[in-house]
Amino acid sequence: MIGKTRYFMDIEKEEAWLNKMREAGYQFVDRGWFTYYFKKVETIDSKTIKIDYKKCRDEQALSTYLQPFQEEGWKRVCGKSDIHYFEKDDPAASEAIFLNNERIVRGYKKLMNQWRVCATVFLSWIVILLLTGMVPDVSNPKSFFYTPGLWEKEGAAFLRAFLFELPFALSRMLPPYIIIFVGMLYAFLTVKTYRIYKRMLAASEYSR
User: Can you point out the beta strands (E) in the chain?
Assistant: First the structure.
């Protein structure tokens, strides 16, 4: 089994990549959080991979959800969180069942709201840090080292003292910048997911 690490926000790009891997002779068999697992096959088939979104609270709900796909000739390969991966089990199977992507639209809306809440929390912390002057000035890194006489030491004595103090200096310097980085990351994910959500929403309304 071969594992490949990837992260996709766009389901259409994820589908395209999985199908490209299949064309290269790698059959998709499972997925972890950021790792996709494939089995090398000698015969390349035309079993298209499609993705759908549905939250199933129990096995009964999952069975009810899968039944229409099975009847249309699609087999569920695996699922991660609320995302389900299907492959064409019947060569004559139609992809029409995937054209109504309202479930995917709802999934993107849910994900967008999650990112937005996280972004709001972290951006609020950033505002507090800036207003209270708690963002350290990294232009003078020596100020984060509190060991008396550190910079007057030389040779092995300086190296020992510096390495001992370094973790504490980093713990004073980095946390505010980590909060700023994470806040900006959540803001980026919110905007990115919003754009995909709007595109999927427009496609869903057009297909009606």
Answer: 2-5, 26-31, 35-40, 49-53, 74-80, 83-88
Question: Quick one: pLDDT at residue 47?
Answer: 76
Q: Cα–Cα–Cα angle for 89, 94, 100, nearest 5°?
A: 115
Q: What is the mean pLDDT of the chain?
A: 88
Residues 6+ away with beta carbon under 8 Å from 67:
none
Confirm whether pTM is higher than 0.85.
no
CA distance 34 to 176: 27
Residue 111 main-chain phi, psi, to 5 deg:
-65, -40
> Three-class SS of residue 161?
helix
Contacts 24+ apart (CB under 8 A), 140-149: 141/169, 141/173, 144/169, 144/170, 144/172, 144/173, 145/169
User: Sheet harboring 49-53: ordered strands across?
Assistant: 49-53, 83-88, 74-80
77 phi and psi angles, rounded to 5 deg? -80, -50
The conformation of residue 150, written as its DSSP 8-state character, comes to G
CA distance 113 to 117: 6
Degrees to nearest 5, angle at CA 179 with 174 and 181: 90
In the prediction, which pLDDT does 205 show?
A: 63
